[in-house]
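Study this pair:
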Amino acid sequence: MSCVKKLKCLLCGKEYTSKEVKYNCPQCGDEGILEVINDYTGIKKDFNPGILGRNKEFSIWRYLPLLPVDDPTKIGPLKVGWTPLYEAKRIREDLGMPNFWIKDDGRNPTASLKDRPSALAVVKAQELGEEIVTCASTGNAALLSCQSIAILPEGMSKERFQWLSQVAGEVIATPGTESNVKEIFDKTWELKKTRDNVVVFNQFEELGNHLWHYEVTGQAMEEVLSQVMNSKDHYAGVVLTTGSAGTLGCGDYLKELYPESKIAAGEALQCPTMLANGFGAHRIEGIGDKHIPWIHNVKNTDLVIAIDDRDVMSLIRLFNEPAGKAYLKEKKIPEETIESLPLMGISSVANLLMAVKFARYYELTARDIILTVFTDSMELYGSRLEELEEEYGPYTKEEAAIDFHRHLQALTTDYLQELTYPDRKRIHNLKYFTWIEQQGKDLEELKAQWYDYENYWGSIHRQTGEIDKLIEEFNRRTGLLR
């Protein structure tokens, strides 16, 4: 790595060169995150405010001198990052919020915010000589510019398979739909046993996923709050449907800043694993995988909100069909807002409905602020609209009126549970069946997540403090802080 002197384990302090280790400290295992010791003098030659201001590379690679990349020729041609930010004024007014902004990461190559870390991970895999990269996902974590294997359930949308066929070397469809993630795990184990040079990225168990969202997404949300809140406003909490549960890490960060705030985890009503130990197929793609991810900090979760997929599927018709848009126009919804609604895909609409339920449950006012994210757009789901038309017929103005009032205006706080201590423990214990019995994780670590809570999760979170010091020192030495 041109910008890296050495790598140092944050737990045991052992140091390595970048060629000695691939990922974590060999002695400390998964928790042994490696601190990067940078060559500040060398970086300063290639990176300063003036150089950054003149840089016309509008993607994550504009920060290349700061990234652990040895060979820039391994970087793929697709642009990642630098996605647009929109102010949704009408949604803000309808929800009674002071401000409402949408970061459209659906503009990334695979319509996912996960393209950012994935792009760097793939470059490093190629530099290390790995021939194949495998990622356990339901289709929204694709890998770029390397020989890769994408594994996802056969019931996912046609668009997901179409884009993966373009960016992945091989696409494997496993039985089932969104909630059939065990079948994906089984296939990754099979590949590891039967093929050489396979690296598996499992977002559901990788603690770096949690830590990244704790630090990066958490600070991004803190920045948003600093911009929109005044002294009379109140941050109420963050609401997020769960896939890998990585994004929930931002709630841990925000709760340290706002101890009275809430973290709400969402799932599909048709697969109520957290709500009722339940299972089942559903149509909210990207969430609700019939298990509790290893990286979900359940003890810090305050609410579970189940979203009926009938509400979501009805609203994507309302927001995207011509008759639905015409009805919204009659309701005096601004044209700009109507044209922006396709920026919300299926799981984004589910997050929006979670925010509405959360606000109504706590009887929030215009002074209360709820955070969520829109993680996909309708670019992934055009075939779903076609399927709905085949099943129910052409969408009419009358159906638009019904969907507007029944599935949005009349939304209630049903299928919402504020968690007690036993409720949280029940959900946490569900990890045993997936991760101990099926995936071979350590039982003592599962117990530590609950009974040694502060030390287990705290030790992970405290690593960011050391990383922050390094960033500040880096900025000072390179002249970014003046």
In short: The first helix runs from residue 40 to 46. DSSP finds 19 helices and 14 strands in the chain. The two ends are 27 Å apart (CA to CA).
